[in-house]
Amino acid sequence: MSSKEIISMISKPTLYDVEKIRSDFPILQTKVHGKPLVYLDNAATSQKPITVITKAQEYYSSMNSNIHRGVHALSQVATEAYEMARIKIKNFINSLGKNEIIFTSGTTESINLVAQTYCRANIKEGDEVIISEMEHHSNIVPWQMICDEKNAKLKIIPINDEGEIIFEEFERIITHRTKFISVVYVSNSLGTINPVKQIIKLAHQNNIPVLLDAAQAVNHIPIDVQELDCDFLAFSGHKIYGPTGIGVLYGKINLLDSMPPYQGGGDMISKVTFEKTTFNELPYKFEAGTPNIAGVIGLGEAIDYVTNIGIDNIALHEKFLLDYATEVIADIPGLKIIGTAKEKVSVLSFVLDDIHPHDIGTFLDFEGVAIRTGHHCTQPVMDRYGIPATSRASFAMYNTKDEIDILIKGLKKIIEVFG
Ligand code: PMP
């Protein structure tokens, strides 16, 4: 079957109004170097709908006040909005209770929190922690740090040429000394969706808790933490159309309860004397100091926005974009896709002959096309493929087929110029 025939078979979701969605994102009207912005760097951060932007602004213009401690009206309104966002997130990921939702500054902090509390308390010399070869640096370095401190061993699940976890290797490296497993749900540099339910099942058969790095999953896949049965789950607001500097750690209540606090300070205490301090109840035990209130409220609004469109509808639209892009990009001579897993989200990493990804990114920028080039904070993935970097186009709910055509046109021009 020719690629044209395949493209015509790729069905477009019908009731999805991408132009209406685009009109909600003011930045998409921007021109770059005189050309309309084609924003394909969504895996790095997504753009924000106007409702999120105005909500964060509304907090500062009509509610600004510190939360939890005030008896005055503004403090109560701000506290209510902040706690409402927690409930929205609880519902979005279907956790059992709102006290399982901890606000952090992002995925990075959420993972560090678990490494520095749960693992510092539970990992001993000679124990093992397992991660995969496709982790983001933020799901490698915190585990290296705690393993170094405890003289524990960090074990790595290898990936195959397609960029999929080799499950038999995972089964092989689990031992009675394995005390924690932390894996990425969706790879940011390959797009692979990992078989996390299977991973969790096997881990639990061995009484090992699992953390899922859901930074690249939460905006593409419906997440149900009860169904997944994960012990911890981390994500960042800015990847799901919310503000930067805000993220979430979900943890099972019994685990969170058993963990020592992460940081000490205001709000995380019940009573302080110089002799002894007792800690606040969950989730406040893990939220020391004045939090990113505008960020939390903005994230709640982003969750509303995504919920209204429907994560399933978004996933369908993005699958259409990924299938189309994968098909048409294959016609570019000398181009090789890095990450060809059977289960993928809308992330397309590639190398193009000997042309350096940095040159590709710079050239495309002059065409108005924003992609990401480099190692994507996954240097071990680059080592696995023996390359220094890739170019990565990543699609979101507001991208279009026409934008993919502009990307392809740009890549064809690059070949002409670079020969
Ligand atoms: N994990 C993955 C898979 C990511 O893609 C990212 C962000 N690129 C992170 C973790 C870290 O997220 P943040 O920088 O928002 O903490």
Features:
419 residues; alpha/beta; Aspartate Aminotransferase, domain 1; Aspartate Aminotransferase, domain 2; 2 domains; seven-stranded mixed β-sheet; four-stranded antiparallel β-sheet; 16% strand; globular; disordered N terminus; binds 4'-deoxy-4'-aminopyridoxal-5'-phosphate
Ligands in the model, by name, code or SMILES, are:
4'-deoxy-4'-aminopyridoxal-5'-phosphate
Could you name the CATH homologous superfamily of the largest domain?
Type I PLP-dependent aspartate aminotransferase-like (Major domain)
What's the total count of β strands? 17
Q: What is the fold named in CATH at topology level of the largest domain?
A: Aspartate Aminotransferase, domain 2
How many helix segments?
Answer: 15
User: Which assembly state applies to the chains in this document?
Assistant: single chain
User: Which CATH class of the largest domain applies here?
Assistant: Alpha Beta
Helical residue percent band: 40-55%
Measured between the Cα atoms of the first and last residue, the distance is 30 Å
User: Regions with pLDDT < 50 over 5+ consecutive residues?
Assistant: 1-9
Strand content: 15-25%
Query: Biggest β-sheet, characterized?
Result: 7 strands, mixed
Overall geometry: globular
Question: How many distinct folded domains?
Answer: 2
The strands making up the biggest β-sheet line up spatially as: 4-10-9-8-7-5-6
- Could you report the average pLDDT, rounded to the nearest whole number? 96
> Rg to the nearest angstrom?
22 Å
CATH architecture title of the largest domain: 3-Layer(aba) Sandwich
